[in-house]
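Same chain as my last thread, 217 residues:
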Amino acid sequence: MKKLDTLLAEKLMQISAIKLQPDSPFAWATGWNSPIYTDLRMTLSYPEVRNLIKVEMARLIMENFGDTEVVAGIATGAIAHGALVADSLAMPFVYVRSTPKDHGLENLIEGDIKPGQKVVLIEDQLSTGNNCMKCLNTVREAGGIVLGVIVIFDYQFSRASKALRRAKLPVITLTNFDTMIDVAMDSGNLSQADADTLQQWHSDPENWTPLGFDTVD
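reply #2:
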């Protein structure tokens, strides 16, 4: 039987929730050039993949954070997944923004977290870790006790893992960058040269520029 990280990486690539384009890089919101792009909202259109993520996240919560009282999705990408997990566990659900909305009550948390309640965060992807850290601090400021975060796809950047360790936030991931590379190569969808390009980007994503590209539109 395939391990969860391998199985999920295969499914994410099959539905183009992970796209690899070493020769035609994407522009991230951070301003980075990137040969990889993840759109995990795509999983919501595929019941088999959506259900796999929901079931495994619920299992991991029960096995690792059994006294969880509230499930919190990190906006915006993990709102739907968090709601599905909370529903399967019959637990309250909230979602957390990294910045306040610009109208109405300007809430950072949508839903009700009571001081002292134990919360698990749900995140779709972990890259820089900035969004996760902001939401962690928001829940803590509201009085919630954050037990950990469960992530669908982890880019495995050292800056994120170091920041979350300093914040004493346990992180559990369903699949990750290294597994994705292995799966793509095993399936013949990625050459050794392109795998090397992806690893070069991964080692210094902020400063990586693909060959033949000086800027990104």
